Amino acid sequence: MADHEYRVWAPRADRMRLVTDGASTEMEDVGxxxxxxxxxxxxxGFQIGDDDAVRPDPRSRRQPRGVHDLSQTFxxxxxxxxxxxxxxxxxxxxxxxxxxxxxxxxxGTFDAAAAQLEHLASIGVTHVEVLPVNAFNGTHNWGxxxxxxxxxxxxxxxxxxxxxxxxACHRAGMAVIQDVVYNHLGPSGNYLPLYGPYxxxxxxxxxxxxxxxxxxxxxxxxxxxxxWLRDMHVDALRLDAVHALVDxxxxxxxxxxTVGVASESAHQGRPLTLIAESDLNEPxxxxxxxxxxxxxxxxxxxxxxxxxxxxxxxETAGYYADFEPLGALAKAIERGFFHDGTFSSFRxxxxxxxxxxxxxxxxxxxxxxxxxxxxxNRAIGDRTVDVLDDSQLLVAAMLLxxxxxxxxxxxGEEWAASSPFQFFTSHPEEELGRLTAEGRISEFAAMGWDAxxxxxxxxxxxxxxxxxxxxxxxxxxxxxxxxGYRRLATLRRDWAALTDPSLAANRVVVDExxxxxxxxxxGSLRIAGTTPDAAHDGRGPVDMxxxxxxxxxEAPVPLGATLLFGTSDAxxxxxxxxxxPPGSGALVALPTQP
Length: 594
Prior knowledge:
This protein is an alpha/beta fold. The chain is 25% helix and 22% strand.
């Protein structure tokens, strides 16, 4: 077997040994905490100092027998890539679909997920966002307990299966977004602190923070990002919980990632995108670097989710309390964030900063009506399908597809999937499993949920309940809702106003007492002047009408308006108004002026 050069950063060791083929070989100290040695390619590990225990490589590309066992060499260049004609896809105008490989299909593999891409295309998906796949301890997990950031979980198909999945997505015209976690490491199988100062003294929700101020740890993160984008042909990264990254605001790891990814994008000649999951409501994240920002491409906005959720469900516990007025949804549509320096009762302080709506394109905010966090972090992982009827579910979908932001769907929502998405783990360590279960129960106290109904994350049934049931698609309410999503996807593709990035071009009128909302999406093309036949070629303005009140709304519309979409058969247009029963919505093409 050909020799392979093994390198490892282990500044805490005064001696390092490479283990291959059962033999231990002293490694050479090459300075800066780095050690090197050559040996046969294949399974390997490291012995740190005088400890004879064999540890996995912090940069391991593959862990065939789990995170506590030997690493294995893997050369991504050996894959015969089929995406040579792929030139990438910008996020602007796109539709994101969030999926968890282990529960997306009964098989729980990349190959099985790839077989469903035609279905995703039918609902307009352009970007497939994959929850974290890096190696974790156990057989099933959300993915946020990963400890080896380069290795792909074997149960999903390992790195080779991942490459086949990326190829399949590109063949289907879809970009791949990989969810990565740089703010913490999982609780089991994390040997990195034995090698070097990967973790600091500070803590966040999940444990010790990653020491991003340490130059080699910073390099470790940036190189990992480039590994996915370069070697695994991924198109974008979703950066988990960036608010938990502790760094110098004026020399931040996020900006370092932006610089590295921009360089790689220029070299590859295709767009490479960075999306932050952030609780900060901070525009600086997505402000270009030349404007004093970090230069990320997009960030999540939970405010839009909260406003939609409260408007339709009337749930106002915990962090939903501030979103009770329908005006919260109106403000989110107009201003991007609801909390933009306003008082957050849940946090007990002012929160967020305002967006420059005249300059920032609205697609920079990724929004959802459901996602893995907002479902899985509920007491029983229940979806809104349990409390909303078909028309209300399609109102939520309409607010995504026809709203001003980048919509993100969560697996199964497009057919009103009946399976919950519960929090599940498979920690082999009994004590860790017990602590995880107890921690979940304590987290729900602030939301006022009954601790007695919280499922045990360690129970295999909790995982099995969360697997999608694809047999539901063609029947009953599932078929009705799916057809609505497909119709909305077609309209989003055909009508320019629905993807126009100008927040300032939207006009919003809310009636708080009647609980009705009208959003006119005229688009910047309309402001510049449109042709008289614009209403017939997808270039005219569109009204989005929402009735979440208790009475019928006869929404006036001008003569010549056309009903493009109604969330139920009871939605109807006559010469002067759209008839909207409670819990319904409509899209109406407005006539243009000569």
